[in-house]
Amino acid sequence: METIDDQQRKLGFWGEGSKLFGIFIVNMLLTLITLGLYYPWARAATMKYLYQETEFEGSRFTFHGTGKEMFIGFIKALGIFGGLYLVLFLFMWTEKPFFIFLGFLIFFTGMSLLTPIAIHGALRYRMSRTSWRGIHFGYRGKLSELIRICIIGFLLTMVTFGIYGFWFEMKVRRYLIQNIRFGNVQFSFRGDGTDWFGLNLAGYLLSIITLGIYSFWWMKDRLKFQFSNIRIHQDDTTIKVRTSFTGGNYFGLVIVNGILMAITLGLATPWIIIRNIKYIFDNIVLDGAFNPDALEQTEEDYRDATGDDLMDALDIGM
Amino acid sequence: MYEYEVKYYDGQSSRSRNAFLLLRDSHWQLIFRDENGEEQSILWEIDQIKQNDTGSALNTFHYGDFPHQSVEIEDPTFIDDLKQKYPGLDFVNKNYHRVLTGGWKVMAGLVALTILLFAFFAFVIVPNSAALIAGQIPRSFESKLGENGYQVFMTTAQEDTKRSLLVNRFAKQIDFDTDYPIRITVVESAEVNAFALPGGRIVIFSGLLNKMGSAEELAGLLGHEVGHVKHRHSIKAQMRSLSTYLFVSLLLSDVNGVTAVLMDNANMLSNLSYSRKLEHLADEEALAVLQKNHISQSGLVDLFRTLQGEAGEEPEFLKFLSSHPLTQDRLDFAKKAASKQRGEQENLELKEIWERIETEGKKESELPG
User: Fold this and answer.
1) To probe the interface with A, which of B6, B10, B14, B252 has the most A CB atoms within 10 Å?
2) Distance between CA B309 and CA B362 in Å, rounded?
3) Domain housing B242
4) Do B185 and B67 sit in the same domain of this protein?
5) Among B48, B257, B272, B350, which has the minimal tally of Cβ within 10 Å of its Cβ?
């Protein structure tokens, strides 16, 4: 196949607010009736719909996760949380200072390890459950390496009163993205902590000076940084991600979302989710000689949703 | 009939193939041309085809185990055709599909049902089960809770020890029909108020004590506060409001500020109405205690007159927002009960202690400063 250098491709999104609204209402109703037990199935239904409406090169994405997998994951996640609290209470119950100290130590160590464990598990699950043209994504990162990055990053962030956090965040992002596989396609992230720190510092200061008006441009810069630093590698070619986010179009998105939310008392949530996804997809272009027909199935199946449920419980967004 | 143009993916590579799908009785047949231009035919066994119900206009079906083969079909009649061709089989979740494609009437009905159910859970089921659970909380825990609250309160309050002693002696003369240890503290304050803590502690502000005019009135007040203690009102009200708060914020965590404020207000109104109900129950308990001890129920009437004089006229619309029922309503309720009361006797011991409480109060107020 001939390769042309100025190939540009976009992600399309066909989701409709009214359909997502229907899914949300059914989800909420069934979750209420089942006293919450339906929640994992509700999550799966939402994801399935959003993936199904996402199109690339004339083909849709598929989410293969099931409510059952996520329910089992949810039970395991609950067990992990419960276990940690149990240890804490048992040690506190001894009323001996040494054991109480030990209990807290185990509890907080466990809790802080939970974040990398959750991210690792969730990414493996999400990636394995995502496919396009029958080819599954995969995440090949090592948990031990992610934990090492997190412990060092956490300690340095504490010592530097949070400033190192920007470098830490980028380090984690680079590690996660470079371990994503999509058939024989690989990804990488080029952003570094210095740029990320500078961008946020400038954004923060200018937002204060302009009484918040600049914050739209700051948020635009953050979005742009996160997407435009992604590179996609297929064989010897590199595909860049170009963005067209502007402070103006971001401002428009947020203001309209805010008005919709306020006048509908939150009922517009599904339409706002659709608007947000469309906004992202409309403003990113994959630039380079990508061959959509040349992907081979390389990744293995992974169905353990524990990490994904831990993420949901810890409220970490991806 | 039953022929569709689809996109076929073999699960090995991302090559997209235009294929024809034919629905046969026992299988789906896929026909396409491979890279060499040769016609290929693939059969999918019906029972290996994965159910699909995303709600999207475009449908994807997967076949077999990982790595799946799949087809994408955009034909809008496909789902209905499937139902006709294979009446006994579920390629889609029928009820789910029907609901999602049911149009605005079905949707409006579902929204109404969801809101009703949500409100029913948030304001009936959750708070009442919480109050029920609060009733089961062990007494030791309850006393601990009350004791903590009491200690915190007393760090900034000044106790009137003499009158505390006398009021406790006064309370000892009355049978409150409870095994909670009732301990009363009189606190120096101009405020005209009193409150009960879980576990049996009762605090009376000297401002209220100074305004009271008879032993019966004090007995009425104690009856009311002990009623709160006996029926664990404070712990029930707290559990109730906390549980609703947790339930609502858990379910609506992603919803915006305006709705959150509305729900907060709804919760507050629901709590206020519950708290008025509890006040009424405590009033009934006070009447019962007075009756049991042959003390005149007009004491409670006098208490409400004292409170009314203090609060002044209450406008009618405030009834909606008040945590206590309007004093006038409570006054009328107590008057009605008192007018029917029989068998009340003057209790000389109570009278004597009351007179000493009064004397102490006068001494206090005469003190300079």
Assistant:
1) B14
2) 20
3) 133-366
4) no
5) B257
